[in-house]
Every structure is written in structure tokens, then in C-alpha cells.
Design a protein that fits this description.
- The structure is a single chain.
- By secondary structure, the protein is an alpha+beta fold.
- Helix 1 crosses helix 3 and helix 5 runs antiparallel to helix 9.
- The chain has nine helices and nine strands.
- A hairpin with a 6-residue loop joins strand 7 and strand 8.
Length: 249
């Protein structure tokens, strides 16, 4: 085996070791890492020594246990900061628009509101669009409800209490449970009379809901079969965007 091939193999093994920590927040023993990485003990010690020296792994205690160190955090921060959700969503929105020829948009959560940060309007003569910068409560509209269904229970209760009278709270709570189960939200005429909206939540790498991806058009173009088809398409696009943000379901 040549020097170049051996170097590539060493890098591959080092990545295998780092990935041992991906699914476990606890410190790992040498035995646990050995089992996961499937490397010999001498090889593993050499790799860990290099990763410790470069600040990617830290060794604590006696007997020693290993955990990720600040070097990984620096790379993670650089990766996270380079993410532009609207840029990542652009091809997914374009694909939805081309497939269904209805207005599509991306909404991001900010506290109790959501804001439209990207929108591609339908070119059909009759179409609806909220416009970039549109803001609305999480408790109204499909794009808001898709987010609210995944907000922490206490926060969600506060938002609902501020927006709705007591008689409507239970109805909305049941609806949110359906949204969590189905993976998408539907609404009709919440903001524009005669409009149909379909939206699915978007999650970040921590599993927190950060926004929603939606499709909008006049209800006359949405018989039940088309609603179902569009809902699945929106759900798939939102899942693809979540994956680009590092979310693992």
C-alpha cells in the first residue's frame, strides 16, 4: 500500500472514531470506542492521541473516558454559521412550484410569530401570495400551525391563550395533535377568503422547529385528492430541508 493510500486510510479511521461520539452525549470508555469503531487497541490509542493533541477529543478521569472537545465545536459553529436557510430552501421551493404551479414559501419562527423569508408566486391568473416580510401569529394559518404543533407545551399554551378565547382552545389543541401525527397542517381562508394553505414543519440539527414550508392557492383548485398529493409533496420538501439543516428524524 502506498503512502497516499495509507494516509487516506488513517483519515478514514479517525473519522470512524469521531463518529463514535455522534449518537452519545456521554463520555465513552476505550472499550466502547473500540467496539464501535472496530479498530485494534494500539491503532485506536494512536488515533485518539492525535485527536487529543489537535483538540478534537478530550480525555478525563481514571480510568480514562473520552469526549468531544472544542475543536469539533469550532467546526460545528463554522458549519452552522454558513447555513442560509432561504438559500438551502430555494431549489426545493422551485421544484414545488414547477410540480404544482402554486405559490410556495418559507416561514421562519421568531418568538410567537412567523415571518416569510422566501416566496415564489404562482404564475396562474388566479393565485395568492403573502409576500416577503409577511408576519403572522403561530396560532393562525397552516404555516403558523405547522410550527406551533412542535413548540414546547408551555410556550404553545401561552401563544394559544393570547390568540384564542377559551371555547376555541380545545379545538385547536386537538388540531395540533393531528398536525404532529400527519406531519402537515391545512387551513382555508384564515387570512385570505377562498385560499387553501398546506404547510409542514422544518427542524434544525437540535431537533427544534425553526419554521415551515408551505404551498398556497385558491381552494377551487384543491379537491381532496389534490390536497392529499400536495400535502405529501410539501411534507417531503420540508423533510429534505430539515435534513440539509442537520436534522435526523
Amino acid at each position: 500500500m502506498g503512502v497516499k493510500s495509507e494516509n487516506v486510510r488513517a483519515i478514514d479511521r479517525a473519522i470512524d472514531v469521531l463518529e463514535c461520539f455522534a449518537s452519545d452525549r456521554n463520555a465513552l470508555s476505550i472499550t466502547a470506542i473500540e467496539k464501535r469503531a472496530k479498530l485494534s487497541r494500539p491503532t485506536l490509542y494512536r488515533i485518539l492521541s492525535t485527536l487529543i493533541r489537535r483538540g478534537f477529543v478530550r480525555k478525563d478521569g481514571d480510568p480514562p473516558r473520552y469526549r468531544l472537545d472544542v475543536g469539533v465545536g469550532r467546526l460545528a459553529d463554522a458549519w452552522a454559521n454558513s447555513l442560509d436557510i432561504a438559500r438551502l430552501a430555494a431549489p426545493l421551493l422551485q421544484e414545488l412550484l414547477e410540480l404544482h404551479n402554486e405559490t410556495v414559501g418559507l416561514y421562519l419562527r421568531k418568538d410567537k410569530m412567523r415571518f416569510c423569508v422566501a416566496e415564489l408566486p404562482s404564475q396562474q391568473p388566479l393565485s395568492y401570495a403573502n409576500g416577503l416580510g409577511f408576519s403572522g401569529s403561530l396560532a393562525r394559518g397552516a404555516s403558523g400551525l405547522a410550527i406551533l404543533a412542535h413548540v414546547d407545551g408551555k410556550q404553545a399554551a401561552e401563544i394559544i391563550a393570547e390568540e384564542l378565547d377559551e371555547a376555541k382552545v380545545r379545538t385547536l389543541q386537538r388540531k395540533l395533535l393531528d398536525i404532529r401525527r400527519d406531519g402537515f397542517a391545512l387551513s382555508g381562508g384564515d387570512f385570505i377568503e377562498g385560499a387553501q394553505a398546506i404547510a409542514s414543519p422544518v427542524f434544525d440539527r437540535q431537533g427544534d422547529v425553526v419554521g415551515s414550508l408551505g404551498l398556497f392557492g385558491p381552494s377551487v383548485r384543491f379537491p381532496p385528492k389534490r390536497v392529499a398529493d400536495c400535502a405529501q409533496a410539501v411534507k417531503q420538501s420540508a423533510s429534505a430541508l430539515s435534513a440539509l439543516l442537520g436534522y435526523r428524524s
